[in-house]
């Protein structure tokens, strides 16, 4: 009996349709006294929200994917509403794994709405793309005029513990931030094809295996640029290239490194200093 063809040689049109995972979490937090509390929470599919105790008036919530990763064709959606004066910190239990695909893309969408005086710290742990992974990700936030957003996202290309290269794959990432209904920040990244080879080019990544973005949208974001640069200089050699700029009520820092562990450690040190607060406990485990 002849060997069956591999998925690499099977036309996409005849790849069997599989049952895919659809995960969703929708959460609304409100200010009550000196603290922030959950007002509404809904969960669907493998996506869950855990709420460790936090004694500083901030609601810290941890996203958990009980499926253990995201496979081709899966769709995950997180929706957060932060009412007036409330402060929500959202993170994840661990690095999110995006498995290789036989043709379909995984979709991850995060949306948030921040009312007057509200704050959101979006601090997920890194996303790891396996070779042949296909991920389309979108991050959208609508802020009231005096609301504050601090967001950090890191992506690792290939499983470095296995010395894996992304010989091919897809990564599309779109950030859209609106204040008072007006688009004020738009950022899009698209890698399609031999991602590791592309990142080895000087103009793309200079050999980086991991990248990250830190975004601060707040009234004092621009005034924090020089202190941030001074903090970066004080770190000394880290094996991570970081550059920051600020304009129009935004501060953005970009991270590139050939060592994902060094990027994670450096980013955590910067975030602790920048936020004036420790990282979520799950980051330290």
What can you see in these coordinates?
It is a single chain. The protein has one domain. Strands 3, 4, 6, 7, 9, 10, 12, 15, 16 and 17 form a ten-stranded mixed beta sheet that branches. Strands 2-1-5-8-11-13-14 form a seven-stranded mixed beta sheet, with no helix packed on it. The chain has helices spanning 195-199, 225-234, 260-275, and strands at 22-32, 35-44, 47-50, 59-65, 75-82, 87-92, 96-98, 106-114, 119-122, 127-129, 134-143, 148-157, 169-179, 182-193, 210-217, 241-247, 250-257. The chain is built from three helices and 17 strands. The protein has 285 residues and is mainly beta. The longest helix has 16 residues, at 260-275.
